[in-house]
Amino acid sequence: MQRPDDTLFHKFQSYFPFCCVDLILIKNGKFLLVKRSISPYKGKLCLPGGIMRRGEKLEAAVKRIGREELGIDVEIKTSVGFYEKIYPNRHDVTHCFLVITKKGKIHYDYQAKTGKFFKNIPKETAPFFKKMLIDAGFS
Predict the structure, then answer these.
(1) Nearest-5° angle of CA 93, CA 34, CA 1?
(2) Nearest Cα to 87, choosing from 125, 45, 33, 128?
């Protein structure tokens, strides 16, 4: 199922929360943060993630986000937990997963043009994602 057009998307977010997945991609003891090109969190360091689609299971959503946002196939190592954020115009409930690259080389989509692996959580990280990284064992 594809994402609805922007009009329907904005109408939906006025009434219902979004179910999302966020990925903590790990490599050599470091984690990936991307610099967002769009709202929410435009210009901030964030985890790659996205909204689930109707009929999509969590594992399938994680794999789709890995392919669409990072251009790679990912393997789930563990679930980190679930988190909730209420924005002025949107309500997200997200499931966070620790993942590794199964196949491919990272390239970014329109949502984030750049990314970098970190050993420690940078101060520029959006607060919503800091909690997920801390719960995954990073500081």
Answers:
(1) 50
(2) 128
The model's pLDDT over 9-56, given as tens digits with 9 standing for 90+, comes to: 677 777 888 999 999 999 999 999 999 988 888 899 999 999 999 999
Q: Is the dihedral of CA 123, 128, 103, 64 positive or negative?
A: negative
Strands 91-103 and 18-27: parallel
Q: Could you give the CA distance from residue 4 to residue 6 in angstroms, rounded to a whole number?
A: 6
Mean pLDDT of the chain: 92
98 forms beta bridges with 24, 78
Containing H/E element for 45?
strand 45-46
Task: List the domain range (segments joined by +) for residue 77.
Answer: 17-135
In what helix (H) or strand (E) does residue 130 lie, and over which residues does it extend?
Answer: helix 127-135
Query: What does DSSP assign to residue 88?
Result: S
In the chain, the number of structural domains is: 1
